[in-house]
């Protein structure tokens, strides 16, 4: 991989990963573990963790600290799987405010994690861990996400599930959502059984554990104790590789012009 462009001080821009945040401490611990995996893969990078809400440290505080240390450049990498409200509004808003407060710090925002084969590889790896080999025509798969009021974000999850169905030739695959839209996980499980699925597994299109992922797991179990349940993507090595890729891509001339 090519080296990242240096800031004015001769250092690579600081990588500031930002997650949504949660009252569940497992979420912040998972984000910290993911940052550790990025550092393991890319020890030359200065990686910081931040949150939009509910957990500390918050993104504005981390960017203020980066500026106070004398760094001249930072890349904010949203640990978000879709281009929904947090990616479209919250992150750009916080970055714009930080840029006004710290004009000496050039801040670039990377793309969200969704849309990468690396993210799908991580989710399929988690699925394989509970379902076994995926070349099973009797398998039905639910790809469970949080859900959004932004329809294109939900459609992107559905497209991933449809792509898996075509690739593996399962009895069926469908997206399901914990909030904001349908189908719910139980509805999706029932539909797959109606389509002839002999086994049903629920994969999570979710980064970290928390209240809603727990609710997804409970609803899947309630739909049938034989339903297989994969865990969140968490600190999977492929996700860490993707974080570093988003960081690098944000520093291309085209990305920099778009961010400006």
Automatic annotation (TrEMBL):
Signal sequence region: none
InterPro entries associated with the record: CbiX-like, Sirohydro_Cobaltochel/CbiX
Alphabetical keyword list: Lyase, Metal-binding
UniProt superkingdom: Bacteria
A Pfam family hit: CbiX
PANTHER family: FERROCHELATASE CHE1, SIROHYDROCHLORIN FERROCHELATASE, CHLOROPLASTIC
Listed name of the protein: Sirohydrochlorin chelatase
């Amino acid at each position: 991989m090519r080296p990242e462009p240096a800031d004015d001080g001769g250092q690579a821009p600081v990588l500031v990963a930002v997650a949504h945040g949660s009252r569940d401490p497992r979420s912040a611990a998972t984000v910290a573990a993911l940052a550790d995996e990025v550092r393991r893969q890319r020890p030359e990078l200065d990686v910081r963790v931040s949150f939009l809400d509910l957990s500390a440290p918050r993104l504005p505080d981390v960017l203020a600290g980066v500026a106070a240390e004398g760094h001249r450049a930072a890349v904010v990498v949203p640990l978000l799987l879709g281009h929904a409200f947090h990616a479209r509004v919250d992150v750009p808003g916080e970055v714009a405010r930080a840029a006004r407060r710290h004009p000496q710090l050039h801040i670039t925002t990377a793309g969200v994690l969704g849309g990468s084969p690396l993210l799908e590889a991580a989710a399929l790896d988690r699925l394989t861990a509970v379902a076994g080999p995926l070349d099973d025509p009797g398998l039905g798969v639910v790809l469970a996400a949080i859900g959004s009021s932004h329809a294109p974000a939900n459609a992107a999850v559905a497209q991933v599930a449809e792509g898996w169905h075509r690739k593996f030739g399962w009895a069926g695959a469908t997206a399901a959502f914990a909030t904001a839209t349908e189908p719910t996980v139980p509805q999706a499980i029932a539909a797959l059984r109606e389509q002839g699925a002999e086994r049903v597994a629920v994969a999570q299109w979710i980064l970290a554990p928390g209240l809603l992922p727990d609710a997804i797991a409970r609803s899947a179990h309630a739909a049938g104790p034989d339903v297989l349940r994969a865990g969140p993507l968490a600190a999977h090595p492929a996700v860490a590789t993707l974080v570093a890729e988003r960081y690098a891509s944000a520093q291309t001339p085209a990305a920099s012009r778009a961010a400006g």
